[in-house]
Amino acid sequence: MTHNVAYQGTSNNFLSFILYCSTNSIDHHFTMASEIAQAAEKLSISETVYVDEVSGCDAQGTGAENAPFKTVLKALEVKGEDVKIQIKKDDEGFKEISGAQMKKAKKTLAEQKKKAKRLEEQKLKQEADLKKKQEDEAKALEYAKSIVLEEDKSLPAAEKIKIRDATQNRTKRVKVSGWVHRLRVQGKDMMFIILRDGSGYLQCVLTGKLCHSFDAITLTVESAITVYGVINELPEGKTAPGHHELVADYWEVVGKAPSGEDAFNNKVTPDADPSYLLDNRHLVIRGETVSAVLRARAEVIKNFRAFYDQAHFTEVTPPCMVQTQVEGGSTLFAFNYYGENAYLTQSSQLYLETCLPSLGDVFCVAESYRAEKSHTRRHLSEYTHLEAEMAFISFDDLLDHLENLICFVIDRTLADEKTAELVKQLNPNFQKPSRPFLRMKYADAIKYLKENDIKKEDGSFYEFGEDIPEAPERAMTDKIGRPIFLTHFPHEIKAFYMQKDPSDRRVTESVDVLMPGVGEIVGGSMRMDNREELLQAYGTAGIDPTPYYWYTDQRKYGTTPHGGYGLGVERFLAWLLNRYTVRDCCLYPRFTGRCTP
Ligand code: 4AD
What does pTM read for this prediction? Predict the structure, then answer.
């Protein structure tokens, strides 16, 4: 590049130089000649840069003939504009670049430089603006620290209320504590907070000085606060939860939530990976949808209890640690119980049966455990199992009872305004099923599958005696589109304790309740009440009867016809609230590989 500077890179300059030399005195000729020689030498090595548009490389090329650039633009950018360019466009070898192409490339380079300059200027301006903003914010924060909010003691004392009681406390001065569910700052003098206290949502409006304190300026979503003021009904046309808002006269922070990267809204985003959301379920449950499901769940369980209460059932609380299986050994969670084998209960059924002579009809709402390897959307490792047992009933009594139970709970859930709202929020298209429910025998289901071309994976049809797995069962249920009582399963595919149908001993007096979208939500049956038959059934199932002595005794000390069922609460909720998976219907789901948090 030095020689380019010496000659300003133009051959015209060099010609003038030669002309100048030739017209000067002879004394100088020797010196001039040597300068000419040097200049000529410099010119002869004046840089020639090679560009090969076919196989050159802008990233790694040096401009040498054996390492050409790919573009003229790059050559000019790296080597400067005063170079000679030899360009190769095809197989014909390097040629001097045309004047037009050189001109065009220089123009483009100039435009690029201009643009880069503009961008640099913009960047500097943005940096300066940001710095100013940060300085202004720091100043504002410093100033805000000097603003101390104080409750005006001349106002009437504020009564502490829950948000659910907001309507009846309108126009009075109240104080409400909760978490900042949403926050909107409008200008310098107005803040809207949607406060959540678990009993509801309440819009609070902060104005003037209340928005200027350090706490106000740094307030974050999920901070816990207490707001004092008066709740007023909103004028027509304005909307807020409960159609009212709390106009604050004072407020205080109880516990602040972080800002920045750790801020709640950065941690919990709806599009996050499902397993990340499960790891953070302790935060996710604060959201509107999940909390609505959990609230509806509480109401539904309450309504199940209400059904049993009006039907005079007694609630019992059976043990969770057991030494017997109910639904097959393959799904047992085993553990060491002071040196003995024990399991987490699969079902409380056997214990409920023993309560009949003591308490009459009984029920329980208890956790059941299944070591399910299957990763389906309706299987949990721990689920809430609603089970009931009744003595002196027939199989038809059992089916009628089940239909009454389900309909009672739906009716009661929808009769309560707040719970009905939750159902509407989560499942706007929910339709109460019409009665009577469809009752279909297993044998007819096998026929249905054939008639509707629902086959096994290998293309063959299901035959009598085979278990109907989840997928075809759901295909049938979804096609029928209403609750089904599927009854009379062959005894080989059902649990050892099920009573055989006296009119067809190939099948049992058993029922699965199937719901569209979810499949089986209830499994029930009449129980074997003959001791000899039960002892034989243990043998067939390969069960050692010894630890079942107490269950067998039930058939010794005043046996009776009896039956019962188990309903998966999460499956019932998945159906009622239209949740994709049972995992969304419990507080902290447990399934294969998940025991956190
Ligand atoms: O059909 P299951 O296995 O029947 C029993 O346990 C009987 N001993 C109950 C009884 O008669 N007392 O289970 C009953 C219901 C199923 O219909 C389903 O709703 C639910 O329990 N259930 C599950 N829910 C979630 N995850 C699992 N892994 C479940 N396994 C069964």
Answer: 0.81
